[in-house]
């Protein structure tokens, strides 16, 4: 079979051959009549036929070329419109001469193409921003369609719910392992309303907010937001425990002071021995109350951003703290060893270094055994400062070593009632080291002793 273009060409050629032959024949006959004589051409009709065929051939060629060119342009327009419909790459603009009949159509397609490119770029930017937001926000996010399929999620949700990586496109019933979560999502879909609840997912306390919304007519979705409240709950419990413990610890010395004061006012002050004993007890309880208040205020203080960083000579600070513990040293006949060399220098806040050493040494002295020892060592490199305080005291059971930095925590409360203190010293050290982005390590054995090592940054100016 001949191709459609050739068929069209032959049809045009035949049509114009006949047309031109008829036109030229009519012109020749009319010319003879006007001039009243026959033209002196013996082969006139053959000549007219040749001319007609030649003209028809030229016209048919021009028409075929023009039609082919227009068809290619239209196919190009169609291809571009299809590409724009499917959001694929659709190349450059269509360039035609202004006098071309399809020039207005080309301009219209070019304008739509430019508009589509601008909109696609904006949508891509918005999608990138949304994806970055979803991946970096502290919330777990899932989008669920009415057919129960998960269409979008983020890494936080996958981590919190222990979902597989290929969760998108799968029904949520096939991947959710928590029955409470399944129930909440099903209820939101059935009732077509938003629901908020708090549930336990494994060891996490999760606040779940399921929002039912409509994207467009007859197209609804669920947005599931998961917020890990575990740390918030832990801090709330710590605050509640701290308030209860602080109230109890404050009440005890205050009750003693009031009780012994009332006894003195009721007449005991007339006995010199009783008066002296009671006043000494009141003094000790007042000192304990002051120490407790100072420790609570220390814990409540926000870390300062304007700390003075300077060269801190550690050995003299250790000697100073040892001298402050002379009474405790004599009571237990302890040996205090300052193993810090005179060349040991920290680039840190001197107040922070002294606070750490004071609390660690005070604890090592208080909880030591008779005729025991306390050793302090320290060194620094270009990045970090190291402080180690070792004692030969009662030691800490392995199952309680993680709790010794809790506020008011005592290892054996019944045994430690005889040991003065606020129970906040190690908590102060822990909070301070944490604020300095440092670390603290405990190595302890019951009946042998305890070694606590603190590592903090050495803030050398560059």
TrEMBL record:
This is histidine kinase. SMART domains: HATPase_c, HisKA, PAS. InterPro entries: BphY/WalK/GraS-like, HATPase_C_sf, HATPase_dom, His_kinase_dom, HisK_dim/P_dom, HisK_dim/P_sf, PAS, PAS-like_dom_sf. One of its GO terms (cellular component) is plasma membrane. It catalyses: ATP + protein L-histidine = ADP + protein N-phospho-L-histidine. It is found in: Membrane. It is an enzyme of class 2 (transferase). Pfam families: HATPase_c (PF02518), HisKA (PF00512). The chain crosses the membrane at residues 12-32, 44-65.
